[in-house]
Amino acid sequence: MDISLDSIKGIGPARLRAFQAAGISSVRDLVMFLPKDYRDLSSFTPLSEVHPGDVVTVHVRVAGEPSQRRARKLVITKVYVTDDTETMAVVWYNQPWLKEQLSPGRELLLCGKCEVRGASLQLTSPVIEREAGLLPVYRNIPGIPAKSLRQSVEAALKACEGQWPDELPEAVRRRHGLCERNFAMRNAHFPDSREALEAARRRIAFEELLLYQVALSLHRGRNEPGAQVAFADDEIDAFWRSLPFAPTGAQRKVLAEIAGDMRGPYAMARMVQGDVGSGKTAVAFGAMFLAWKGGYQSALMAPTEVLARQHYEGAKALLEPLGMKLGLLTGSLTPKQHKLAHEAIAAGEWDAVIGTHALITEGVEYRNLGLAVTDEQHRFGVRQRSNLGFKGDAPNVLVMSATPIPRTLSLILYGDLDISVIDELPPGRKPVRTRIVPEEKRKDMYGFLRSEVRKGRQIYVVCPLVEESEAVDARPAEQVYEDLRTRDLPDLRVELVHGRMKPADKDAVLAKFHAGEADVLVSTTVIEVGVNVPNASVMVIENAERFGLAQLHQLRGRVGRGSDEAWCFLMAEPNERLRFLCSTTDGFKIAQKDMELRGPGDLFGTRQSGTITYGVGTMAGDTQLLKEVHDEARALLKTPASPDTETILRLAESAYLQKFRSTPAN
Ligand code: ADP
Ligand code: MG
Predict the structure, then answer these.
(1) Are 463 and 496 in contact, with CB atoms under 8 Å apart?
(2) CA proximity to 102, closest of 87, 80, 121, 74
(3) How remote is the CA of residue 383 from the centroid of ligand 1, in Å?
(4) Which atom of ligand 1 is nearest to the CA of 248?
(5) CATH fold of the domain at 43-129
(6) What pLDDT shows up at residue 607?
(7) Is 34 a residue whose pLDDT tops 80?
(8) Mean pLDDT score of the chain
(9) Among the listed residues 225, 379, 351, the one whose alpha carbon sits nearest the alpha carbon of residue 289
(10) Which fold has domain 164-296+368-429+616-666?
């Protein structure tokens, strides 16, 4: 299946480059570039029910002769249309050729935005659609207009017809009622009906999840011998007694599970899930302490420099008094410091090392690594997960995640991991008071922010990421930053951090906020990563309606860590979802509600699912399907000699296993 992309009609050198820049370099890639959504052109809005600001599809008739005039450099084409409920003006700019097509009486399917013009409504520059049905909406590819993209996909599908045999064994397809591949691909892009689309999605998701899970099981076969860590039972209690607080029952339970794994002859592969603020760090430190008691080194990897530093400081305060020697290894050390760190690790001078990616990307040689911990696992993506790329003799592996994931989905995403849940928050934690703030209350809120800063508190302002292609009225971080700095809160120290900044600059700003040298931190969602600034007690979330509930919940978990009253302000018009968030602080309930209301895609940041975005995005809420995938994977792996299993293994190998294996330093 390597038909080259430029053999497709309409794809010249420029488009080819645009596709390649988006990671699409073959016809196959293009066919696998599945829509992120569908626009339903079969359900029309009556003109009488169109409101300003709506993006609508209307089925209308041209009601008069079109007019055309020039205004400066614009050619304005205008025509009135009707659907018998109402008459409305439609206007296009600089598309003079349209006039020819707008003969009175002609029926049109228009899709566009409704605006107020003077006292009446008009549709502005709507797209004229040819046929009704479900129209695919793709992620924007810079340099390729939506319509051309659709045509290219259509041509790619044609080119594939009959060339891309269905490799999923027929028995598997039959067992699970899955449709055939060509049908699935065609209908995933251009559905004949809702039912056909459902069948297509099911088929594609099933295959993706199945291959992923099989690859995962192969990659990290269970029951691998691992570092066997021996320590006395009372060391666990000794650790808990050394903390400045009493552990929760859930923390005790989870550390006991970890201790059991580490003692056993097989390498631990365990994920600890716990809501933000549930105290995962203490559990990780406990595991590191036990590893040390058993004579092994441990490593803790955090997704950012700031978080690594923070863990390092925390671990030092807690573990060094107990006799451990700790070290820090991040990308920003000087070459000399790097060299010293590597030596200290190799010589076993450091009992535990805390750091960033540098822990695995620099080919660090450990003396005897017995435990590898990754914090905020979902930030790393699937590829770096499985053995974390740590060198050494099959260390025990512990990953920490704040994302509550329904069990059925965990089984697939983390099929290779045992799961422990910290389902209890430390006592005395004040729930973050969450309020919806409509636009007219914005000024009052700024007054409140000011008074909080006067009390010595700090404030996060979080903005959604905005895809330029989307015509949404979201306030991008830079704009919000400028407004706050120059207009709304000029008397406060405001800083900005966003994902397009260089990592070093980003970390510098975060460090500044951490040190209390800024009052307000405006950011895109980068702060979602578990930075702990106990002094930050207020969070403002702009365009809160654009976030998933689970994500909002994670975000607000960044405040309320100190003893102060904590607040979260959701800038949005009130709706059911946001009201639900105001009413509860239970992360699992929120995740469940999110899936019910918005579909599963939002439960995960885009990075969460790594390579299996489609299956997770479309089917994560389908418990039945997930169970079928899981059972099928197990059944296949139990009969390794069968031809069907061999086929699946081969497919899994080429789809995922190669990727897992190309983990750096592995
Ligand atoms: P997360 O699970 O989000 O990583 P952390 O480990 O950062 O949470 O813990 C959040 C805060 O709660 C920290 O300041 C930590 O010291 C504190 N903490 C953890 N466990 C307890 C406990 N059992 N009692 C009181 N405070 C605790
Ligand atoms: Mg944490």
Answers:
(1) no
(2) 80
(3) 28
(4) 23
(5) OB fold (Dihydrolipoamide Acetyltransferase, E2P) (2.40.50)
(6) 33
(7) yes
(8) 85
(9) 351
(10) Rossmann fold (3.40.50)
